[in-house]
Every structure is written in C-alpha cells, then in structure tokens.
Amino acid sequence: MAIRPSARTDVNRSAILAHLGAQGPTSRADLARALNVSPALMTQLTKDLLADGLLAELEHSPSQGGRPARMLGLVATAGRAIGVKIAPDHVAFVEVGIAGGVLRSASEPFDAAASTMLSDVTELLRRFIAGGGKTPLLGIGVGVPGAVDRQGSGLVDSAQLGWNQVPVGATLRRELDLPVLVENNVNALAMAERLYGLGRQYEDFLVLTIGTGIGAGIVVDGVVLRGVSGGAGEIGHIPIDAEGPMCTCGNRGCLEAIIGQAGLERTARERGIIGAHGTIDALRSAADAGDEAAAAVFSEAGHLLGRVLAGLVHTLDPEIVIVLGEGTASWNHWSFGFEPALRSSLISSRRGVAVAVETWQDDSWAQGAASLVLATPFDSDDVAGDQGRLVRERLVEQASPQQTAPQQKAPQQGEAQ
Amino acid sequence: MAIRPSARTDVNRSAILAHLGAQGPTSRADLARALNVSPALMTQLTKDLLADGLLAELEHSPSQGGRPARMLGLVATAGRAIGVKIAPDHVAFVEVGIAGGVLRSASEPFDAAASTMLSDVTELLRRFIAGGGKTPLLGIGVGVPGAVDRQGSGLVDSAQLGWNQVPVGATLRRELDLPVLVENNVNALAMAERLYGLGRQYEDFLVLTIGTGIGAGIVVDGVVLRGVSGGAGEIGHIPIDAEGPMCTCGNRGCLEAIIGQAGLERTARERGIIGAHGTIDALRSAADAGDEAAAAVFSEAGHLLGRVLAGLVHTLDPEIVIVLGEGTASWNHWSFGFEPALRSSLISSRRGVAVAVETWQDDSWAQGAASLVLATPFDSDDVAGDQGRLVRERLVEQASPQQTAPQQKAPQQGEAQ
DNA sequence: TATGGTTTATTTAGTCCTGAATAAAGACGG
DNA sequence: CCGTCTTTATTCAGGACTAAATAAACCATA
C-alpha cells in the first residue's frame, strides 16, 4: 500500500529494452527522461546492458545545440516472442522480433471442443516454434476469448470456447519449458495498443473490439484493468433486451448476442437479406453494393454500440476509444448509426471524446498476444508474476554464453495471495 | 528537522499515521507487515514519529507466544480535518479527528445558483471552522456532485449544481489559507470506504450510490479510478431510454432521470401514489405501510438498477458492490426487484458477486469529503498533488514545537463507520 | 578566436530502504 | 528451574537510487 521498493533494477533494465523496442534508438538522456529515472542511474544500467551485449552504441546523432547524443539501439538478435490466438475453430500464430515487428505468421484449423484440445494446441505450437529463427525465444503469449485468473497462471474460463477452468498456461509451460503468459485476447490487444499503437500517447483509453464477440480493453493510468478475476471488459454481456436472442453465456439479449457476428447474421437472415447459410461477408458485400436493408443492419448495430459506449465513457472517462476487430471491415456502415447515437447520448463535457478506428489485420489478435511477452519489461506492477521474471531472466541470460547452467526449473517464487 | 526532503519517506511516515487512524493501535511488527516495509525501516520511522510527538507508546499487548508487542497509538491532538458536502440547496460540514471519527457536524441552507455561491460557502465554512477545536486543522475536503479536474486544483463541472469550471479549490485556498482538496462526492465516499469501511478488505470494489443522483465510485487495485478528466463513475447518465424523461444533463432517459429521487417522485405522481407536491418520503411511507403500488415503484427501480449494475460488473469485475446513499432507506423495497434482475443478468462466473448495503447517515457525504484529507497519507500516486504534500507537512510541523511533551497515553481510537 | 551557452554523460556524496544477524522478552514443557 | 520455541524490536552492512557537481562535446557570436 505504501511504497513498492523491491528488486526494481531488474524491471528498469528491461524497461530500457522495451522502450528501445517500441521507440527505436534513443539516447541515454532521453531514456532517463522517458523512464523517469536519473541520468546517473541510466549510465549505470546501460553500462551493464552494453557489457551484456543486449545494447549497442550507434552513430552520434546531430547535436541540438549541445553535446551530441550517442544513440543506443537494441541488438536485433537479443530475442523474439511468439503470440498465439485461440479461437473456437482455429489457432493463429505469429513470431515477432524484440522490436515488435511480425517476422512470420500462420493459422491452423483447431477444434476447441475436442477433448484433446490442449495437446492439439501444444503440438501445433511446437511445429510453429520449430520453423522459427535461431535467436533466443523469450516466451509465448496466448490470447483467449474469456477470463484468465492470472497471466502467469493461465487458468481459462471461456463461454465462447466452452472451456471451464482449463489450465492452458500450466500445460504449455510443462510441455514446452518456456515462459508462457495467458491473457484475455482483448486485454492483450489493449497492451499491444499501449506498447506500440495509439495508446502510447494516452494513459486512459478504451479498446473496443467488434467481431465474433464484442469486447473492451480498459486502460487506466497506463495499465490494463483486469478486475478481481481477470474478467474485466466483458461488455459483450451487458444486458440489453430481456426478450432478446439467446447468448452463448446462457442469458438472453446480451449486447454480443445482438450485434456480435452471429447476431448480425441472424438479423440479416430473419429479414431475408442473406440466405439461410449466408455469412457476415455476404451481408457486408450487400451493404457495400448499396443494399439499404443490409446497411441498416450495420447501422442499427452501430446505433446500439454507440449508446452502450456512451455508458462506458460516462463510467470510465477515457481520453480516447480505439475501435478494433474483424468487424471494422464494415465500419463505414456501422458509423452511420454509431456516431450520432454516441454523441447524442453523452453529457456535454464528454461529447468530444475521441474515437479512432484502426486498420485491422488477420494476425492482429496473435500480435497482441505476443506483446504480452514483450510487455513484461514494463510490468512494474508484477501483473505477469514469476513468468514475467522468467522472460526477463532469459533476456539477460542469453547474452552471457558462459552461463551454461544446467536445466534448473524456476524456483517456486511463492506468489503472494 | 521537521520537513523531510524526500516525499517518499514523507508518504511512509504518514501512511503509519493513517493506518493507526483506521485500524487503531498497532505494533511495529504489524505496521511493517501492513505497509509492506521492512521491520528495520519501521523502527526507524516510528522513532522519528515518537520523537515528534505524533505517536505514543501504549501498554504492552499480551504475548502471542513470543515477545509481547508494544502497541503504538496516535496522539489524539495531532490533528483534525473538515469535510464539506456541497448540494444544490444546502452545504453540510463535519469535523473529524485524526482517527476518522466525527467530532461535530452542521448543515446550512445554501443556493448553488446564486452568483455569490463561492463567497457564501466560504463564509459558512469560516464560521464552522471558528466553532472548532484547538488541535491543528490539517485541511479541508470538499465533495461535489460533478467532475473535478484534480483534487489539488478543484475546478468543478456540475450539471446538478449548474456549475461550469467553477474554481472551488482555488477560491477556498486563497480565502482560508488552508490545504483544500476537492473531489467528486461519490469518489470521496469510495475513498472513505477504502480507508475506514468495508473497502479495507477489498482491492477492487464498486461503491454504488442511490439518492438524488445515481453514482458509482470505482476502486481498482485499491485506488479510486478518476478517469482522464475526473469524471469516471458518472453512471447516472448511462442512456437507458431514448424516449425517457428529461435529465438535468439535457439528454433524455438517463438512468438518473428514471430512478434518481426526482425520477421516482415523478413516476409516483404520474401513478397517483403521491400528490402533486408529494416527496420521496411520502412514497417510502406508503410502501412501508403496505401500499403495493408504492412498493412497485421502488421495486421497478431496483430491477433497472440491477440490470445496469450487471453491466458494470461485467465491465469492471469487482469483488464486491457496496450500496450507499439516502436511497438505501428504502432498500428493502428496491431489493425486491434488484436482486433477481442482477443475478439473472450476470454471466455464471460472476453470479456470486457480493453486494453489501451499508447504513447511511446524514453526514456520510461530508465525512467522505473529510476523508480526502485523512487519505493523503496513502497518496503514493500523488492524486492530491501539492495540497496533499501541504497536509502532510502540517501533520509533521504541528508536532515539533512542544517536542518535550511527556509520554501521554493516547485515548483508544474509535472505529469510524 | 576566445567566450559563453547548451545538451549529454559521468562521478561523487549521500538518502532511503532491505535482508540478515542479533538482542529482547515472553510462553511452554519437562 | 532450565532449555527451547516464538514473536518482537534493533543494529548493521550493503544495494538502489538521486541530486548536484563535473566533464565532455558541440554551437553561436562578437
């Protein structure tokens, strides 16, 4: 409650690495300012990192009126991470470099309902790892559509996957002998956004995802809000209409059941806009082609989303809302209903809240998951627990080859509470 | 000697005082555990505080198998704080001791719409201060129904008061020459709950207030969530019904317009349950007397509140929800609709979320405001800014003059609730 | 070309805090 | 009564970090 003393040096060392990964080469002076430590300490820390071979001194940067800065950059071979997205019918992988860039990606069919789902995902992941580079693999980040007890534990509850207390983290750790961090996929996306995206400039923002499900990642004071059981941001189950359609969660009329992908398809089918087996793609095509009824489906969804988001903005008072997810492909149709509904539902002092829609890529979810690993350096609140410490250790150890210590398991670091 | 250069030590020093105020006499060992610092440091810090006369060594507590603890207690004369609640038609004051207990209180008529409102409240406050005790006055806490930019600044936006960018903090500071902290009243209440109430045992909880308005105080990781402009928790303006009654904010169908006090009275009048000038008290009396139509008004409000709260629980994943406010007087009627609506709208993993209804007193709002001052010791995140530092300085300075005060026994600290 | 101004990096002295060892003070069982 | 155990409090050596002074490197300008 009072002060967090602790072994902060470790966090600081790798916060430098993370900053360089996210921002590119930086001078010691800028690093000290960015990380809010004294220049003296920065000299000390970078000396160690240079000696360890994790950092390299680059060219001098042109002077800005005084002594020119000697830039420091990451040594590219310092590490990489793998991100995994688990969906009901497939898993997606990406491999990212230490600076956050995607090196390669893949997607494989997968059945989350199979009894062998854990060994299946392990095997697929093993194959993906095998095809990877030679630089040290720092860890695995896994994103799931559901609640995760702790990132460093990885017990998953997910209605969408039909999983109940599934030990994803423990299994993968045991099988792969790598640090594994598991998190709700929207929260992982919010962390990625904070590290590499628009969120860099904001301390308080909301990541709103539309697609199969409807979700929110909540960032407060620069940190993702997880809630007591890791289930914060489940806005897809905000009750809207007690007589509405059945939701995967068992209740009726949840937001997600109405404007999630399945909900939109259902509405479109009922209205005869798409066929009995028509999908969201057909609906979007129709809307794009000028079908007003099809466009109305999106627009009405946008209207509802706008009203719900207004409630969230009143509740959380964010500086900006970042819209992401597969559904953004049809955002031009959503926005027609969304914007007026949002603005007219806000109290005057919030009416100017910013909304940004970012471009979406197929591997964005997996990239978000990978950022769980790359974000551990920032983890001064110990969200990642002992797995985060493991990642940091790997970052430091890989640089000193003589440290060929035998396979020793992570010392059970007695997680408090 | 009195003023320490480092803010960190300062925070720790007063965290001790706050803990003793909230928890009563405590041993050094327990303090070290509670504040998460080493016993060594605790010895050091308490030595200083004892020398400064802020702490006193009390009787030995019975041994628990080992060396018996020497309890430390607050010296009651170390300070007091004043809390102010500003409402559209009155202001309320309380004076609290350093342990959080109410020493005296008052309520005065007031017109927030008058052009002289700031000088009015200043004058009333001046009079209240004049009637107070002789122990050092640490500062003033002010609770307002609206958004406050920063506690240490005190620029207020409030639809309920009809205030726009009113410099409450600056004015009071200038006129009274005391530290002044201003905060949204529900947030202040949440802080009080965290310091002295049920919230002591929870890191993540929601304070839900029903009464004139509907509000929420959001506590995440033990800290009140303010949002980027200090307006988080404004759940009263969550849009419910686009065709609903007009709200003070200018929109239609806000939650507060429907189930806030005025909304309930409006409904009751429309249904002929109370007269044209009937108030909420008449409605409650009718319901208490067995009038089913009157009870239904509350029950329906409870139903709506339960559904909205379910959305909040999904969004924020709190451990417990604490219900407060004048409206709790009729909670027995609310709960009839509230409980089933809440539980049936929650996804299964959240269905067990705890809900506690605490007893409400007239001066609770003002007491919450006062806790802004008493909470500054906990303020490691610097929420209170320079005003918080001022409070801490006053706490330390006042003790120095008569440093040779004899070992006096501190009176037993009462539990404030 | 000397002089001063600016920005970056390092060194130095000192503060805050911790972990570990030690002392203090009782309970308890034989 | 004695030794052992447990819990509390203090002392001490050392690590992390900072502020301030200093050094280093460049620019501008009379």
SSE blueprint:
Two copies of one chain form a homodimer.
Chain A: H1 8-23, E1 26-27, H2 28-35, H3 39-52, E2 55-60, E3 70-74, E4 80-86, E5 90-97, E6 102-109, H4 117-130, E7 137-144, E8 147-148, E9 155-158, E10 163-167, H5 168-176, E11 180-184, H6 185-196, E12 205-210, E13 214-220, E14 223-224, H7 255-259, H8 261-270, H9 280-288, H10 292-316, E15 320-324, H11 331-345, E16 354-357, H12 364-375, H13 385-397
Parallel strand pairs in A: 4-7, 7-11, 12-15, 15-16
Antiparallel strand pairs in A: 1-3, 2-3, 4-5, 5-6, 8-9, 9-10, 12-13, 13-14
Helix pairs in contact in A: 2-3, 6-12, 9-10, 10-11
Chain A binds a DNA duplex (30 and 30 nucleotides) through helix 1 and helix 3.
Number of domains of chain A: 3
Write down the CATH topology of the largest domain in chain A: Nucleotidyltransferase, domain 5
Detail the poorly predicted runs of chain A.
1-7, 400-417
Largest sheet of chain A: 5 strands, mixed
At CATH level 2, the architecture of the largest domain in chain A is 2-Layer Sandwich
Report the helical percentage of chain A. 25-40%
